[in-house]
Amino acid sequence: MDNQQSQIWTQRYTDYLQDKDSRPARIVYQRDRARVIHSASFRRLQAKTQIFGLSESDFYRTRLTHSMEVAQIGSGLVEQLITVGIDDSGNEKPYVEWLPSFYLIEAICLAHDLGHPPYGHGGEVALNYMMRHHGGFEGNAQTLRILAKLGEYTPEHGLDLSRRTALGVMKYPAIYNNVIAVNTDYQAQLKEMQVDDFRTLKMNRWSPPKSIYLEEKQIFDWVLQPFSAADRERFTQLAECQSCHQQTQYKALDTTIMELADDIAYGIHDLEDAVEMKMVSRDLWQAEVMEDAEFQKYQLWDDEMTERLFSNSSRGRKHAVSKMVGIMVEGIYMDENGEFEHPLLRYQARLKEGEAAVLDLLKRFVFKNVITIPEVKQMEYKGQLIVLELFKSLRANPSALLPTSSYNKYLQAETEQAQQRVISDYIAGMTNTYASRLYAKLFTPTQGSIFDRL
Is 157 within a domain? Predict the structure, then answer.
């Protein structure tokens, strides 16, 4: 990659607006990572759940520890792509010069969950319901909003990360309004009467489309500016979907690496939490993973892995988890999508057939036996009700209930949608603990004091 190409991708939005030259990649990407790590949004991930409640144990993962593991795995995937990026003649394959640096991939991985609201997907659905007539809510869209506007590094442009880092974080390059516009079923839902008793609300009908807010369209267009018109059109096109939200089909190179790291952390590290909590038995593992036809076809490990994973030794479990992760990391390779011109869209990191199939099996196993069991879904539902009630009260009484800084933004907002987005941003930024304590303070008669510091 020549210096001119490099400077296009290291450019920050403020550089672009002020017509300033970009700084070298080694400086920019290191600072991108630093800005994410030192942001308030990143610190708050320590009090947002991954799967289990924060009070269950100090051992289980939060969004913060999950993000750190994704960053570590992401670096490992890049290192492996470098290792296998040498041809038989000892020369580097063309894709190697386009691989992200370790600083860059870590910045992307650490930032990928910044927009997740309290109570995970449950909170996301609740916020989308309350914002359904005001631009919607979606966790990935909120991540870009933090990077572009809400982060504290600059007054108006958020954390102001480089163009390539922003591209890597954008998992779904489509505008929210455009996605819901082509979903006729969802358009009919939007005409339904407001539900005031939230306990009667069918939450699963209000899952948001994977997208970006219309409010961030300027930064969205700026990120995609270096691509040709044909690449931009293909990159943002939606795939057909019956009775559901359409999604984009393609992701940038760095995003494919980050998503593989995220999937590995979800399928394997979250499995470790489930085993530790004894939510998954050895017999269940044996029946649904080890003896599954898909696993039998590839057999990436033997029964010794089961012995270690279900041993009473934490060292044994750690060894098994580390071995599984290593197998997945070593299964990465670089594919090409010839429909795209630009290398950052043409090159796609993928897992080999066997590793991809087994990782998908592990993800389904965790989803079925952990994520969707009643005990977990009940806590998610409780979190949804907290978010819905908080939003309802803040919307009705912004002057009394919003913090001073948020209320000042509310007063300065020029449209009703902008006002509602202020409330949404405030709730989305809450940790599980903060949201629960605020709910108790407002709605539990015996709780709360003017001296409370939430």
Answer: yes
pLDDT tens for residues 44-53? 998 876 444 4
Average pLDDT over every residue of 110-121: 93
Give, in degrees to the nearest 5, the angle at Cα 321 between 318 and 327.
140
Residue 372 phi, psi (nearest 5):
-105, 10
**Quick one: which of 134, 117, 261 has its CA closest to 190?**
134
pLDDT tens column, 376-401: 788 888 999 999 999 999 999 999 99
52 and 116 share one domain: yes
- What 3-state class would DSSP assign to 174? coil
Q: Is the residue at 266 inside a domain?
A: no
Other CB atoms within 10 A of residue 1 CB: 13
Cβ–Cβ under 8 Å, residues 421 and 398: no
Q: Are residues 202 and 213 in the same domain?
A: yes
Token pair in block for residue 430: 């809450």
Residue 240 pLDDT exceeds 70: yes
pLDDT reading at 88 higher than 70: yes
Helix (H, G, I), strand (E, B) or coil at 58: coil
Q: Does 260 reside within a domain?
A: no
Are residues 62 and 177 both part of a single domain? yes
The residue out of 194, 220, 254 marking a domain boundary is 254
Helix (H), strand (E), coil (C) string for 335-356:
EECCCCCCHHHHEEEEECHHHH
Residue at a domain's end among 313, 340, 374: 374
Rounded CA-CA distance 185/289 in Å is 37
The domain that contains 206 carries what CATH number? 1.10.3210.10
- Cα gap 450→285, rounded to integer Å: 51
Q: How many CA atoms lie within 13 A of 299 on its CB side?
A: 6
Q: Which helix (H) or strand (E) holds 104?
A: helix 102-111
Q: Which amino acid is at 3?
A: N
Q: Do 129 and 180 fall into the same domain?
A: yes
Domain residue limits at 432: 375-443
Whether residue 218 is found in the same domain as residue 312:
no
**Whole-number pLDDT of residue 386:** 96
The structure tokens listed for 403 are: 């913090």
Give the C-alpha separation, 390 to 396, whole Å: 10
What CA–CA distance (Å, rounded) separates 180 from 266? 28
Q: How many domains does the chain have?
A: 3
Contact yes or no for 132/445 (Cβ under 8 A): no
- CA distances to 12, 194, 231, 280 from 312, rounded to whole Å, are 50, 51, 52, 14
Q: In sequence order, what are the residues at sequence separation of 6 or more whose Cβ sits closer than 8 angstroms to the Cβ of residue 173?
A: 212, 220, 224, 235, 236, 248, 250
Q: Does 54 score more than 50 pLDDT?
A: no
> Is it the case that residue 436 has pLDDT exceeding 80?
yes
Contact 272, 321 (CB under 8 A): yes
